[in-house]
């Protein structure tokens, strides 16, 4: 579990592993949610609808990076992939502007958000975009477990057609 210090409040990041369909096969992608909130607790129990309701009262543009990331995770779980890509992209913009984060926490948060963005892209069929996002995630934090797991899954799925063709 990663910890982020923001405004004197420690917020935990938790991994949510779930079977999320990617094209015709299923892949065990992993996403990361931040914080201690109603939405966070809903995400822990894979209740995407409750998480979206808890976050939905706030306009996306007014959310901080934690809320935008958690909304992205809820949208991934609900398979609202274009919305998830938008929310994760905004979370990346917001994390760069958050002056309360130290450099190490910012890099760790960016890695997690890029990994979540990659899951949304992969599930929507953009495997090259997903691979690129995961490479960025691993540049920010090479020990991010979710980014590593997701990178391996996506690399394997991209290599699969070449292996089949070679048989």
Order of helices and strands: EEEEEHHHHHHH
Query: What is Rg?
Result: 15 Å
Strand order of the largest sheet: 1-2-5
Shape: globular
Low-confidence stretches: 3-12, 18-26, 162-167
Helical proportion, percent range:
55-70%
Please state roughly what percent of the residues sit in beta strands, choosing from under 5%, 5-15%, 15-25%, 25-35%, 35-45% or over 45%.
5-15%
Number of strands: 5
Mean model confidence by pLDDT: 81
Biggest sheet details: 3 strands, antiparallel
Number of helices: 7
Q: Please identify the structural class as seen in this structure.
A: alpha+beta
Distance between the termini: 42 Å
What does this structure look like?
- With 167 residues, this protein is α+β, with helices and mostly antiparallel strands.
- It is 62% helix and 15% strand.
- The protein has 7 helices and 5 strands; from the N terminus they run βββββααααααα.
- It has helices spanning 38-44, 48-56, 65-77, 81-97, 103-123, 127-140, 145-166, and strands spanning 2-6, 9-17, 20-22, 25-27, 30-34.
- The strands form 2 sheets. A 3-stranded antiparallel β-sheet has the order 1-2-5, sandwiched between helices.
- Helix 5 (103-123) packs antiparallel against helix 6 (127-140).
């Amino acid at each position: 579990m990663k910890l982020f210090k923001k405004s004197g409040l420690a917020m935990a990041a938790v991994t949510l592993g779930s079977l999320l369909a990617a094209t015709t096969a299923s892949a065990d992608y992993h996403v990361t949610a931040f914080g201690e909130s109603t939405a966070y607790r809903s995400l822990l129990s894979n209740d995407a609808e409750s998480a979206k309701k808890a976050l939905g009262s706030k306009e996306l543009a007014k959310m901080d990076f934690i809320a935008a990331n958690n909304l992205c995770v809820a949208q991934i779980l609900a398979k609202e992939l274009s919305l998830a890509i938008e929310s994760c992209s905004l979370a990346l913009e917001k994390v760069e502007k958050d002056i309360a984060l130290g450099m190490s926490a910012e890099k760790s948060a960016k890695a997690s958000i890029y990994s979540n963005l990659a899951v949304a892209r992969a599930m929507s069929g953009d495997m090259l975009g997903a691979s690129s996002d995961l490479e960025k995630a691993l540049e920010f934090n090479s020990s991010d477990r979710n980014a590593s797991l997701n990178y391996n899954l996506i690399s394997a799925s991209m290599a699969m057609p070449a292996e089949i063709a070679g048989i």
